[in-house]
Write a structure and sequence with these properties.
3 domains; four-stranded antiparallel sheet; globular; 362 residues; disordered N terminus; Alpha-Beta Plaits; alpha+beta; binds cytidine-5'-monophosphate; Ribosomal Protein S5, domain 2
Length: 362
């Protein structure tokens, strides 16, 4: 049935492209093409995220921590190429030796679940063109996994309801579901419950990627150790600190919609994203990651010296980002940072509409 549809589509296309060919020769060519046809390769861009503020709450009984953060997708990406062919099994291909090729890879795990949920059969080949840092706090592995899910759906021409996709993504990792929403996203629970926020205008951003990886579980373990030995904050004090950020976000959001003039709206011509970060949000992971890796704190200071309106660690790091008033300011900062020996690149924050337009763009 599917083949019939494809043949009709190709014949119509051929008639339009090659009007001089006889119908017979068109069909001879077409039969050869179908005979040689290989499984469709679906390229998907897996865009990275940064965290605009992140508060770590109490440790839960399931071993996870309560979390409150605003995720924001940005313009840097890996490319995932998904093929579903006849046969069975899952194969991961990636030239980067740091990327696991077995079932410990999030792409592998989500591919298994997606194929099962779609009731499909086939051999899935996932090629990862790695451009984002590994263990960099930009959600690279999670974005790759969600791109794999979307690629398999497209390759099989089948889709799942959004609720099912969100459930599968959350089973594979806490910061996967955000990539099924894109743009500015509020993350609660362990970070897997995602609520779309109003789209901020695209904002100039510079990303500094120091040459170290930070393990997220280790950063959470270090956070717990410090809570017990240094800060001695009780669970209820941690909850209070989460509530503070929650209230700041509530105030910012409600003012955004109320029409009342306020600093958090960024003024008539202001950028509400810069207004939000100026309101004083920060990332709790900096308190455990900076003492362990002092150069990350230095990178944050270098971003501010280079003109960032706001700079922060993303997730548990090691990536730092800075937000800038203009693309020109961001590009001047990249030059300055590179001169000082940092690996820096300019990008933009990616609003939801831009995110979904570009995910499948070749
Ligand atoms: O959800 P994900 O698989 O990415 O989490 C990896 C690890 O990070 C978890 O096993 C847990 O140790 C830690 N984690 C946490 N609290 C969260 C998210 C992750 O403690 N909210």
């Amino acid at each position: 049935m599917q083949k019939t549809v494809e043949i009709t589509e190709v014949v119509v296309l051929r008639e339009w492209m090659e009007p001089d060919l006889t119908s017979a020769s068109r069909h001879v060519r077409l039969r050869a093409e179908i005979y040689n046809r290989r499984a469709m390769i679906v390229p998907v861009k897996s865009f990275a995220k940064i965290n605009l503020g992140l508060r770590i709450g109490p440790l839960r009984n399931d071993g996870f921590h309560e979390l409150l953060t605003v995720y924001q997708t940005i313009g840097l990406f890996d490319v995932i190429r998904v093929t579903v062919d006849r046969g069975s099994g899952i194969e991961i291909r990636c030239a980067d030796p740091r990327v696991p090729k077995d079932e410990s890879n999030t792409c592998f795990r989500i591919a298994e679940k997606t194929i099962a949920a779609l009731g499909a059969k086939g051999r899935v080949v996932i090629e990862i063109e790695k451009r984002l840092p590994v263990q960099g706090g930009l959600g690279g592995a999670s974005a790759d996994a969600v791109a794999t899910l979307l690629g398999i759906e497209r390759a099989l021409r089948k889709t799942m309801p959004q609720a099912e996709k969100l459930r599968i993504a959350a089973e594979v990792g806490s910061d996967l579901p955000l990539f099924l929403v894109g743009g500015a996203v509020l993350g609660v629970g362990r970070g897997e419950q995602v609520l779309p926020l109003p789209d901020f205008p695209s904002t100039a951003c510079v990303v500094v990627t120091p040459d170290i990886g930070v393990s997220t579980p280790k950063a959470f373990a270090e956070w717990d150790r410090r809570q017990q030995t240094c800060s001695k904050l009780t669970s209820s004090q941690l909850s209070d600190k989460m509530n503070e950020l929650g209230l700041d976000l509530s105030a910012w959001l409600s003012t955004l919609y109320s029409g009342a003039p306020s600093k958090v709206r960024g003024g008539r011509a202001g950028n509400p994203l810069l207004a939000l970060v100026r309101a004083g949000i920060d990332n709790d992971f900096e308190r455990v990651v900076f003492p362990e890796h002092p150069e990350l704190g230095e990178a944050k200071r270098a971003l501010v010296r280079a003109g960032a309106k706001y700079a922060s660690l993303s997730g548990s790091g090691s990536t730092l980002y800075g937000l800038f008033a203009s693309r020109e300011a961001a590009s001047a900062a990249v030059t300055k940072l590179r001169r000082a020996g940092w690996t820096a690149q300019a990008t933009i924050t990616l609003p939801r509409s831009g995110y979904w337009t570009r995910v499948f763009q070749g």
